[in-house]
């Protein structure tokens, strides 16, 4: 793992944003695996600004998001579909047919997950962007007794519900989500993980220096050949 300790979230956003812009300019039809949450927002802002300046185009970029809530309408402001459009897609020339999400409202969840995994296998993710949960989750792969392979429906843990319920001011936060599996995440050519703040210090330390165990799903990244970890000093404080 390459560990980059930076001053703050803005500096990380610029560094990771530049990494993505350079990668897109090098391979305009790149396939990206994308994350939601607070961590990637400065990165998405940087990419959108570079698009506005005419320094990058996303017209041939393909994206696959990591996860989506179950039983939350796609149009809800808290769906990850809405998040991605508000934070990145609506500010660029990416084509709607090139953006992909797990459908948390699918009638047949099993078929939906299988279909997403088939698409991922065919598309082959070049760069996967990740955040990390306070409990070490990646995507919504919560601590467990085994590492997941493909996409599946997960019951969110109390830790995740308390971290994310602040966004749900009108309706209660969904208790389940669909997520890409750890096996699929590990298939990406390159992985870039962002974490900031003292709340993430335990998870970052377990991910980098702990045993590889499904109790800390992110620890599996120790087995990937190309992982860049961008953290601030607070998240790095237990290393
Ligand atoms: C989001 C996702 C999650 C988040 C993680 C950190 O698509 O997959 O694993 O990356 O919960 O969230 P933030 O960045 O809000 O602290």
Folded structure, characterized:
This protein has 239 residues and is an alpha/beta fold. It has helices spanning 9-26, 41-52, 80-87, 109-123, 158-164, 182-186, 201-209, and strands at residues 2-6, 31-34, 62-65, 67-69, 99-100, 127-130, 152-155, 176-179, 190-195, 227-232. It has a 7-stranded parallel β-sheet with strand order 1-10-9-6-2-3-5, with helices on one face. The protein is globular, with a radius of gyration of 17 Å. Fructose -6-phosphate (F6R) is lined by residues 35-39, 66-67, 131-133, 137-140. Residues 35-39, 66-67, 131-133, 137-140 line the site of fructose -6-phosphate.
Quick synopsis:
The strands form two sheets. A seven-stranded parallel sheet has the order 1-10-9-6-2-3-5, with helices on one face. The protein is of the alpha/beta class. The protein has helices spanning 9-26, 41-52, 80-87, 109-123, 158-164, 182-186, 201-209; strands spanning 2-6, 31-34, 62-65, 67-69, 99-100, 127-130, 152-155, 176-179, 190-195, 227-232.
Q: Which strand order does the major sheet show? A: 1-10-9-6-2-3-5
Q: Please provide the ordered H/E string of secondary-structure elements.
A: EHEHEEHEHEEHEHEHE
Compute the average pLDDT.
Answer: 97
Task: Report how far the terminal alpha carbons are from each other.
Answer: 13 Å
Q: Helical segment tally?
A: 7
**Biggest beta sheet summary:** 7 strands, parallel
Ions, cofactors and other bound molecules:
fructose -6-phosphate
Unreliable spans are: none
Give the overall silhouette: globular
Strand proportion:
15-25%
Find the structural class using helix and strand composition. Answer: alpha/beta
Total beta strand runs: 10
Helix content estimate: 25-40%
Cα radius of gyration in angstroms:
17 Å
